[in-house]
Amino acid sequence: MARRYCCNDVLPFTAMVASEIGNVGLQVLFKAATSKGMSYYVFITYTYAMASLVLLPLLFILNCRAVLPPLKFHFISRMLLLGVIGY
Questions:
Q1: Is the distance from CB of 34 to CB of 43 less than 8 angstroms?
Q2: Are 40 and 61 in contact (CB under 8 A)?
Q3: Where are the domains of the chain?
Q4: How far apart are CA 23 and CA 69, in angstroms?
Q5: I want to staple 38 with a disulfide (CB 3.0 to 4.6 A). Which of 7, 33, 58, 69 is the partner?
Q6: What is the pLDDT of residue 81?
Q7: pLDDT classification of 8: cutoffs 50, 70, 90
Q8: How far apart are CA 3 and CA 26, in angstroms?
Q9: End-to-end CA gap in the chain
Q10: Dihedral of CA 55/58/62/67: which sign?
Q11: Where do transmembrane segments lie in this chain (predicted)?
Q12: For the segment 20-77, what is each residue's pLDDT rounded down to a tens digit?
């Protein structure tokens, strides 16, 4: 019972807080780097490279063989609509 509570209530909240902390930390690093003269494009390149180095090992560590459901038209159209609205 306690494990179900942790997975359903605590884990999403913790992930959200960690995501916001990472976002704020990245904004602070961006401000410090650009104020010292680093190019925006170089900073983005370094950020993507670091994210790849961090996330790539997780692919092999957390390898689960779940079968994904097939893509249906209504799902693809909703993703397209969200992309257009987000743009």
A1: yes
A2: no
A3: 2-86
A4: 31
A5: 33
A6: 93
A7: confident
A8: 32
A9: 42
A10: positive
A11: 40-62
A12: 999 999 999 999 999 999 999 999 999 999 989 988 988 888 777 777 778 899 999 9
Selection from 2, 61, 74, 46 nearest residue 38 by Cα: 46
Query: What is the identity of the amino acid at 39?
Result: S
3-state secondary structure the chain: CHHHHHHHHHHHHHHHHHHHHHHHHHHHHHHHHHHCCCCHHHHHHHHHHHHHHHHHHHHHHCCCCCCCCCCCHHHHHHHHHHHHHHC
Q: How far apart are CA 40 and CA 33, in angstroms?
A: 9
Q: Cα separation of 13 and 7, whole Å? A: 10
